[in-house]
């Protein structure tokens, strides 16, 4: 089902985390690509929009907030995956168009797969 | 003013009662003259038919009875004086003036002693009225009358007296013919001392009898005499019918209370009267042949020169006050008049000097002056010390004392000298010095005695006064008499004035009285001044307090504004000025809330009823109102968050205004912000390795994992995550200890290079793992005082950074060197004392220029290294810098991206500063 495989872009500066996510999501049948900072993410998205962006916030150079602003209004599904857990951060991210806000330390990889599957209407 | 009554009387009868003796009866008309038997009156003849040089009035005893109040009877022996001739020539109905009565002879109040009346001639008149009175009143008074006359023809009232003898059993009458000889008297009076004697008659008779009476032991108090024609009343001689002759003058001179001296042309005393004897204390015998210098001679030479010039050359009287000295050495002042005695050709025969003792008058004058001088001294505006001294000077100089002191209680409640004056010649004595310096308890010494028992004390000779603490000094100073008086105020002593003199003075109650009054005035003045001084000190303290309050308010960081009840600004301190941008003078008197607007966080003007100042000033309950979530709008329109407290300013239940204290919360809010950001960041940093651990553990646990290599990789990630977490927790603990200031610095004398090498050895694995080269270059570093634990943290962090942020095969150059005081340690870092410079240079990624200012901040990691897959807490450099800040060291760096970074650390050769604390850094 290559045609209908959902493409997910992981934007995460912590490489071990990106790797773990990549591994889990590809096992779950998604097309996964990882970038390690905001600038690359924007470049990537400009080339080929993803079905879902998992976006970290605190990153060097261009951070997740910049990316959120860039994506705002472009119709790209984005979920913020960050270890920031302040109310105002969550509120602000949603205002900028984030579908959801997942605090990484609070969600398991399986949780993430489940949530994404649900998001795509039960289709991986 | 005539203190006696004057009456107009009419002559109603005249008759001859004996040879040349006439009796005159005057009627007083409706008036009645009250008199006692034995008194006399003056009879004034209005129209003298024959002139009399001695005037128109004479004294006469009234011999009519006091019971006949409207009648005055007198008797007069005829003579050829103008007065007597005029009297004899009065027609019946003639008017005369009668003045009196004057007392002289009166019957004793108690009829105890028998009376002996000795009358010579017309001298019978006073006795006659007394006997007549005693008989009329039936007084049980024994009276013996011996009545002497030259001839019986001359004896008046014999018949009347005989009749009285018949009538009065207590009255005996004996007529004596010829002179009243003592032998005759003795035959009638057995014991003269038991009787009271009255003598009236010619002077010769009085003199004889007086002499005899004194000779026979009759006390002077027991006899009275009335020299016929010469009445003596109150020491004044009233002359009557006797002609003036030289003898009379001698009598005048003798009885004069003025001191009269007659000298020859050379001043040798020829004669001195009784008064001169009494006053000078020398007898006439002692005076005769001397000059008046014997009692005088105390004035200046020029004075005597002028005196002699005046009386001898000009032959004119000389008058002056003169200071004299009595035989017993006491001084007295006289008013003297010295006149030349000239014959008819103006040849100088001698001098007559009269002196009147005016010592008392003078004293009275001096005292009066003293009182007025001291009063005016108290009133004029001069310093208190000058005033006290001035008064003591007046007391001493006017009243002849040598030294005066005022003693008052000092601050330690002891008596101490608060003013002293003394004559120049006394100043050198140690008495003055001791007096000025000594202080003693209230109950000590003579001064203490007078203070405790406030009564004046006169000491005739202080040299004998054991109570005087300064008795030895007083002896040395030669003082004799002293007086001590308390200065009183409302019945309590507040000080003591003392005066000393080298003279031996007799007690002088009048002076004591005046001194007491001056002492009281001075004491009250001093007390008032002391109170004024106290008040002044209090006032000064108050204003000091005000100034201090203002200074305090001015210097405190909190802004303070004081308003009245109408919110009008009364005071603003500099902090308030700084915060709101208005100057005090711009807002004084202005309504605070009209000038300074208050906003909510939503930038909306706070309604007036929510304004804390308004709330306090309008609230029924006077309480403090605090607000922390408003903003003040500055003069320039900018705002700042404010914490304000409004407090009512109350005085005895009345509201005077309000005090507004406020501070800018900007900084605090920034710090709060920073803190919450740090917490959020720290939590984020902790969650990252935690996520790593969670997720890799999950991957490991999942069934579809069989690749051993992959498992190992996952476990490695988990290990990495947990190490990172442990490092982070340690670093966070250190940060907390640094920020709380609770970490300890305990320097000990160690070899710095050995510590460095220990750390380097621990790092060998990482260095080798990246194939890096370490280049060392160290000067000879002597042992210094270093906290080993902290020094290791510094080395570990700097070396770890050099390793972590360098690519493979990079170089690390480390050096230790000594930099002398004042020299540049590199990059313009001049050291202020001899220091050790540590430099750690790498050939790593370097720090981007934009991040140079942030690398010592907490949780900061430069962007260029965050993507390098190297772990870091972002706390290491912050911790290093904090340690160096606390221990007196310094750190800085130079860096260029892609070329490398060099960190420099300096530590004083004196070592790290010791710091007390509860915790170690890990």
Layout of helices and strands, plus pairs?
The complex is a heterodimer of chains A (124) and B (922).
Chain A: E1 7-11, H1 15-27, E2 31-35, H2 38-47, E3 52-55, H3 64-71, E4 78-82, H4 87-95, E5 100-103, H5 109-119
Helix pairs in contact in A: 2-3
Chain B: E1 5-18, E2 21-27, E3 40-44, E4 57-61, E5 71-77, H1 82-88, E6 95-102, E7 115-120, H2 124-136, E8 143-149, H3 158-167, E9 171-177, H4 182-188, E10 196-201, H5 203-215, E11 223-227, E12 230-233, E13 236-239, H6 246-255, E14 259-264, E15 269-272, H7 274-280, H8 284-287, H9 301-313, E16 318-325, E17 331-342, E18 348-357, H10 359-379, H11 384-399, E19 403-409, E20 415-422, H12 424-427, H13 430-437, E21 439-440, H14 445-452, E22 457-459, H15 471-477, E23 481-489, E24 492-501, H16 509-555, E25 559-564, E26 569-572, H17 574-580, H18 584-587, H19 592-595, E27 598-599, H20 612-618, E28 625-633, E29 639-651, E30 654-664, H21 666-701, H22 708-740, E31 748-750, H23 752-762, H24 764-769, E32 773-778, E33 784-786, H25 788-804, E34 811-819, E35 835-842, H26 863-866, H27 876-887, E36 890-896, E37 900-908
Parallel strand pairs in B: 7-8, 7-10, 8-9, 10-11, 32-34
Antiparallel strand pairs in B: 1-2, 1-6, 2-5, 3-4, 3-6, 12-13, 14-15, 14-18, 16-17, 17-18, 19-20, 19-24, 20-21, 22-23, 23-24, 25-26, 25-30, 27-28, 28-29, 29-30, 31-33, 34-35, 35-37, 36-37
Helix pairs in contact in B: 10-11, 10-16, 11-16, 21-22, 22-27, 23-25, 25-27
Structure, described:
The complex is a heterodimer of chains A (about 120) and B (about 900). Chain A is of the alpha/beta class and about 120 residues long. Chain A contains 5 helices and 5 strands. Chain A is globular, with a radius of gyration of 13 Å. The relative contact order of chain A is 0.18. The mean pLDDT of chain A is about 90. Chain B is rod-shaped, with a radius of gyration of 61 Å. About 0% of the residues of chain B have low confidence. The interface between A and B is medium-sized, with 27 and 23 residues.
């Amino acid at each position: 089902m290559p045609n209908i495989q959902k493409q997910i872009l992981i934007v995460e500066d912590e490489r071990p985390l990106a790797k773990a996510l990549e591994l889990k999501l590809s096992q779950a049948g998604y097309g996964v690509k990882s970038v390690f900072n905001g600038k690359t993410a924007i470049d990537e998205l400009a080339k080929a929009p993803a079905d879902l962006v998992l976006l970290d916030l605190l990153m060097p150079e261009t951070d997740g907030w910049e990316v959120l602003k860039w994506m705002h209004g472009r119709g790209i599904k984005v979920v913020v995956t960050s270890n920031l857990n302040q109310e105002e951060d969550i509120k602000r991210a949603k205002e900028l168009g984030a579908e959801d806000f997942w605090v990484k330390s609070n969600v398991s990889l399986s949780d993430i797969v489940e949530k994404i599957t649900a998001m795509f209407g039960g289709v991986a | 003013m005539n203190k006696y009554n004057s009456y107009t009387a009419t002559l109603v009868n005249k008759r001859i009662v004996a040879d040349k003796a006439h009796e005159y009866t005057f009627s007083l008309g409706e008036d009645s003259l009250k008199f006692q038997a034995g008194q006399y009156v003056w009879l004034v003849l209005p129209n003298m038919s024959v002139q009399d040089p001695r005037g128109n009035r004479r004294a006469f005893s009234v011999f009519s009875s006091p019971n006949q109040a409207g009648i005055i009877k007198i008797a007069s022996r005829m003579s050829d004086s103008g007065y007597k001739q005029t009297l004899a020539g009065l027609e019946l109905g003639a008017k005369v003036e009668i003045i009196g009565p004057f007392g002289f002879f009166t019957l004793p109040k108690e009829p105890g002693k028998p009376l002996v009346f000795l009358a010579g001639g017309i001298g019978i008149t006073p006795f006659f009225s007394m006997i007549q009175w005693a008989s009329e009143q039936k007084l049980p008074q024994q009276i013996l009358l011996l009545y002497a006359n030259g001839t019986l023809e001359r004896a008046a009232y014999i018949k009347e007296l005989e009749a009285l003898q018949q009538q009065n059993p207590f009255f005996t009458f004996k007529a004596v013919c010829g002179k009243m000889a003592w032998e005759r008297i003795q035959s009638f009076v057995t014991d003269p001392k038991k009787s009271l004697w009255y003598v009236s008659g010619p002077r010769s008779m009085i003199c004889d009898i007086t002499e005899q009476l004194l000779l026979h032991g009759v006390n002077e108090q027991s006899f009275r005499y009335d020299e016929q024609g010469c009445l003596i009343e109150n020491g004044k001689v009233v002359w009557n019918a006797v002609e003036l002759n030289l003898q009379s003058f001698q009598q005048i001179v003798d009885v004069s209370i003025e001191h009269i001296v007659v000298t020859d042309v050379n001043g040798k005393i020829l004669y001195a009267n009784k008064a001169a004897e009494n006053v000078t204390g020398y007898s006439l015998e002692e005076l005769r042949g001397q000059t008046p210098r014997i009692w005088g001679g105390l004035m200046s030479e020029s004075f005597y020169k002028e005196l002699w010039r005046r009386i001898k050359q000009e032959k004119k009287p000389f008058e002056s006050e003169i200071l004299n000295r009595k035989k017993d050495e006491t001084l007295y002042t006289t008013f003297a008049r010295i006149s030349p005695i000239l014959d008819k050709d103006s040849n100088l025969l001698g001098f007559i000097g009269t002196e009147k003792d005016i010592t008392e008058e003078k004293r009275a004058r001096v005292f009066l002056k003293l009182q007025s001088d001291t009063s005016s001294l108290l009133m004029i505006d001069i310093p208190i010390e000058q005033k006290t001294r001035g008064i003591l000077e007046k007391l001493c100089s006017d009243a002849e004392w040598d030294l005066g002191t005022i003693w008052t209680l000092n601050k330690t409640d002891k008596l101490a000298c608060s003013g002293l004056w003394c004559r120049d010649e006394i100043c050198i004595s140690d008495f003055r010095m001791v007096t000025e310096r000594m202080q003693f308890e209230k109950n000590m010494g003579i001064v203490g005695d007078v203070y405790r028992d406030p009564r004046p004390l006169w000491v005739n000779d202080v040299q004998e006064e054991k109570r005087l603490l300064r008795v030895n000094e007083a002896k040395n100073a030669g003082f004799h008499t002293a007086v001590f008086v308390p200065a009183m105020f409302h019945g309590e002593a507040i000080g003591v004035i003392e005066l000393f003199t080298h003279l031996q003075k007799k007690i002088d109650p009048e002076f004591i009285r005046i001194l007491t009054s001056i002492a009281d005035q001075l004491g009250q003045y001093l007390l008032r001044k002391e109170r004024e001084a106290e008040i002044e000190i209090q006032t000064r303290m108050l204003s000091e307090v005000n100034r201090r309050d203002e200074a305090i308010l001015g210097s405190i960081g909190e802004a303070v504004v004081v308003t009245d009840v109408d919110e009008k600004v009364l005071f603003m301190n500099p902090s308030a000025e700084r915060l709101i941008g208005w100057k005090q003078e711009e807002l004084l008197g202005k309504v605070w809330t009209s000038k300074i607007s208050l906003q909510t966080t939503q930038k909306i003007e706070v309604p007036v009823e929510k304004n804390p100042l308004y709330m306090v000033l309008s609230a029924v309950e006077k309480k403090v109102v605090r607000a922390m979530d408003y903003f003040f709008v500055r003069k320039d329109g900018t705002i700042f968050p404010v914490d304000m407290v409004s407090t009512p300013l109350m005085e005895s239940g009345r509201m005077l205004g309000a005090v507004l204290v406020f501070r800018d919360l900007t900084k605090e809010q920034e710090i709060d912000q920073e803190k919450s950001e740090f917490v959020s960041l720290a939590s984020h940093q902790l969650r990252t390795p935690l996520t790593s651990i969670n997720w890799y553990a999950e991957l490991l646990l999942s069934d579809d994992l069989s690749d051993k290599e992959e498992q190992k990789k996952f476990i490695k990630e988990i290990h990495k995550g947990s190490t990172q977490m442990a490092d982070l927790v340690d670093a966070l603990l250190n940060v907390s200890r640094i920020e709380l200031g609770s970490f300890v610095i305990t320097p000990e004398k160690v070899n710095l290079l050995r510590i460095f090498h220990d750390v380097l050895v621990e790092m060998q694995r990482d260095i080798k793992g990246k194939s890096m080269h370490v280049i060392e270059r160290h000067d000879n570093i002597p042992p210094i005082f270093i906290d080993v634990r902290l020094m290791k943290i510094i080395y570990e962090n700097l070396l770890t950074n050099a390793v972590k942020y360098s690519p493979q095969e990079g170089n690390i150059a480390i050096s230790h060197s000594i930099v002398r005081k004042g020299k540049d340690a590199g990059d313009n870092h001049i050291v202020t004392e001899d220091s050790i410079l540590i430099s750690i240079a790498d050939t790593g990624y370097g720090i981007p220029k934009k991040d140079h200012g942030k690398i010592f901040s907490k949780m900061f990691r430069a962007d260029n290294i965050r993507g390098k897959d190297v772990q870091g807490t972002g706390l290491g450099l912050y911790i290093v810098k904090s340690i160096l800040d606390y221990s007196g060291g310094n750190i800085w760096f130079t860096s260029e991206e892609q070329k490398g970074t060099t960190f420099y650390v300096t530590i004083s050769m004196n070592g790290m500063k010791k710091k007390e604390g509860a915790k170690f850094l890990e």
